[in-house]
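Entry for the shared binder. Reason: the reviewer on the internal report wants the predicted structure included alongside the sequence.
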Amino acid sequence: MKTEDIEYQDGGITMRGYLAYDDEISGHRPGILVVHEAFGLGEHAMERARMLAELGFVALAADMFGDRLQPRDFDHAIELITDLKANPTLLRARASAALRTLADHPLVESELLGAIGFCFGGTTVLELARISNDFDEGDLRGVVSFHGALTTPEPAEPGAVTASVLVCTGADDPMIPPEQVLAFEKEMTAAGADWHVIRYGNTVHSFTNPEADGSLSPALHYNELADERSWVAMSNFFDELFE
């Protein structure tokens, strides 16, 4: 497997992403963008990029804060993501810069793109889905949100969501209560999207991250079974979209 840091720009800010692909596979292949959690681009997102490379994709773990910034503490992390989430135009542009970088890679089939994200990253890829009609010829085929917030200051317009959408969320996640899920489903239906939501029982926030042990909050806790099931759901989702 080949891994490397890759720099790209957004609005004069240098972003430092992490690229992974199987260098024993020849020819073009689909590209998957990976968007990190609130604590910046770290091992969790990088490991998911490597896992996607093992599935035969070119994966780019995006840097959403610039210069691979790691927040100094939980409050700093919340400050960073709150500023971005409150400005969908900026958030969408920054994620789009990473997606364009992935699409331009010589091994990527640029018409076969996907995006996945975790927590803040899950929210981010849903913002990409909300503007997916802006990408050329439906190049962004689908996005997967793992325990990401589903709200937005700018809901999708009818016809704007051309990417398929999969949301994997914990049924007991206090950060994403049932009414938020229902509102999201109504938004996607009104937009004419191809969407589906999977809710995992006995599961709270951050269920894909083994480092989430409940010490920061009981609402942040890894769930091995939900992690495994949601990854299989993601794999099947992209198999269908890229066949």
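Summary line for the report: Strands lie at 2-10, 13-21, 29-35, 58-61, 108-118, 140-146, 164-170, 195-200.
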